Amino acid sequence: MSVSVRAARPSDLRRVAPVEDAGAAMYAEHFGDRTVPALVAPGPSGAERDGVGFLLVAVDDRRVVGFAHVVPHDLHAHLDQLSVLPSYQRQGIGTTLVRAAMEEARWAGYDRMSLTTYRDVPWNGPFYAGLGFVEVEPSRLERFQRDLRDHERSLGLDEPGPRIVMQRRLER
């Protein structure tokens, strides 16, 4: 398998939401009856993501198998979504996408990347910790991070398990 990562093209945009949607079953299985509707709701289309920050795709023979969407917030780049098709997981594609997103953000002048995630879901908090992201204490959150967490709470995303903000510095 030869997967490459590149900036999304217009022809990729219709393939982005199905990649995110394919992961809903993993959350439903992991959380069981604690799964909330917002967690398994259809993801935004690629067209909705296009033009807000940047969108990278992982492609296997012209098939979009993963993506990373990064949005700007002051001096922070925020990893809004990382998704990889379940059949392509555990092959390093998520790691490659995150590293490519960090590099792109660094070149765009951002000094940090942040994200929100579930602390204890193996493919969430522990995955990002392995890439150098650390949990941000609630008292140290930036305004946009507090706003994101408030929005997540309003959607019920804290009900299945603890959600956290993580970030890491982007080395020059």
Describe this structure in words.
- With 172 residues, the chain is α+β, with helices and mostly antiparallel strands.
- It has a single domain (3-169), classed as Gcn5-related N-acetyltransferase (GNAT) (Aminopeptidase), CATH 3.40.630.
- It is 32% helix and 28% strand.
- The protein is built from seven helices and seven strands, in the order E-H-H-H-H-E-E-E-H-E-H-E-H-E.
- It has helices at 16-22, 24-31, 37-40, 46-49, 93-107, 125-129, 143-154; strands spanning 3-7, 54-60, 63-73, 76-84, 112-118, 134-135, 163-169.
- The protein has a seven-stranded mixed sheet, with helices on both faces.
- The radius of gyration is 15 Å and the shape is globular.
- The N and C termini lie far apart (32 Å).
- 31% of the residues are buried.
Work out the radius of gyration. Answer: 15 Å
Might you state the CATH topology name?
A: Aminopeptidase
Percentage of residues assigned to helices: 25-40%
The CATH class name reads Alpha Beta
